[in-house]
Write a sequence for this structure.
């Protein structure tokens, strides 16, 4: 026995985000069934299926909650989508026996000027950007920037040359505003099908995404119920294994599938891979020390403190996304009568 074991490491070894996936599945399913049938008074559930682990788990939970025959999955590719997303989405729908429909939103986005508005913003700093080029936005790692979120534009020219450019705020905001049309258009399609079938719409964020505002207001942030928003991403993967989500999906790195160039979630938004972000968020939420959290997340104390600073900064910056409409005077709610 080692009598010189670091107490923080010993305590951190007891920290676990492990759950009982069977018990948690049953708890979520019961809640979803109650929400759909009695609170929302709808016949079934609609969700956008992206081929990622979060929407796949939600699809499996929906099938258990209301029956596979009462779930509609919608695939909504657009011009910049990875073809694998549609293939993997179909794999999930087939795995759980769910009805599905493909809605190509590319023409709608073109008609609204989504792509041209984005490209016009990019041309403000790269005048040659156009056909044959590709782009994405990346964020500097919070561990290397004292917690400040500095975004850059990565461009690939037709000959494959890559360049990374700093953006003035007007360019950054313009690109984000244009690409947010994608999430809002998808949600419009989801509610169209929900309305015609008298179904409710599922939102698929996990706790890390919900807490950190990794969603578009009135886009993927809009939903009638969010069944996994209380679960850390690591816990969502535990449910995925229990529910039988195809391994090809659980092995796929989390992506945004929003920009022309392949982009991971940590490139675009999070400071670290999800399992370390989960540990840091848990440590902050549970008021653990930086020493204990660092040992659990395999980081230094200074790195944990920087990530905590980044988490708090994102909470402050994205508070607007969590707010509902603001009223001059509170209005009594009589709908429960």
């Amino acid at each position: 026995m080692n009598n010189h074991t670091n107490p923080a490491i010993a305590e951190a070894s007891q920290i676990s985000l492990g759950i009982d996936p069977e018990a948690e599945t049953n708890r979520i399913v019961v809640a979803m069934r109650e929400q759909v049938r009695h609170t929302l008074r709808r016949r079934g559930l609609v969700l956008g299926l992206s081929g990622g682990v979060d929407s796949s788990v939600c699809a499996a939970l929906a099938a258990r909650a209301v029956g596979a025959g009462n779930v509609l999955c919608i695939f909504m590719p657009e011009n910049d989508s990875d073809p694998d997303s549609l293939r993997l989405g179909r794999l999930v729908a087939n795995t759980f026996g769910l009805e599905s429909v493909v809605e190509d939103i590319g023409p709608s986005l073109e008609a609204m000027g989504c792509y041209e508005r984005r490209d016009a913003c990019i041309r403000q700093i790269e005048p040659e950007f156009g056909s044959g080029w590709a782009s994405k936005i990346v964020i500097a790692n919070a561990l290397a920037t004292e917690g400040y979120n500095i975004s850059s534009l990565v461009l690939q020219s037709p000959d494959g040359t890559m360049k990374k450019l700093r953006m003035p705020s007007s360019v950054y905001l313009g690109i984000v505003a244009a690409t947010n049309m994608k999430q809002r258009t998808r949600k419009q399609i989801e509610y169209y099908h929900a309305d015609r079938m008298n179904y409710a719409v599922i939102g698929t964020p996990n706790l890390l995404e919900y807490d950190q505002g990794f969603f578009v207001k009135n886009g993927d942030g809009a939903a009638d119920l969010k069944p996994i928003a209380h679960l850390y991403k690591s816990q969502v993967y535990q449910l995925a294994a229990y529910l039988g989500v195809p391994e090809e999906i659980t092995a796929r790195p989390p992506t945004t599938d929003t920009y022309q160039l392949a982009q991971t979630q940590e490139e675009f938004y999070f400071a670290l891979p999800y399992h370390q972000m989960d540990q840091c968020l848990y440590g902050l939420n549970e008021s653990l020390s930086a020493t204990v959290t660092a040992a659990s997340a395999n980081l230094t104390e200074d790195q944990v403190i920087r990530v905590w600073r980044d988490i708090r900064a994102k909470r402050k910056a994205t508070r607007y996304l969590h707010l509902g409409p603001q009223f001059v005077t509170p209005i009594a709610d009589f709908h429960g009568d």
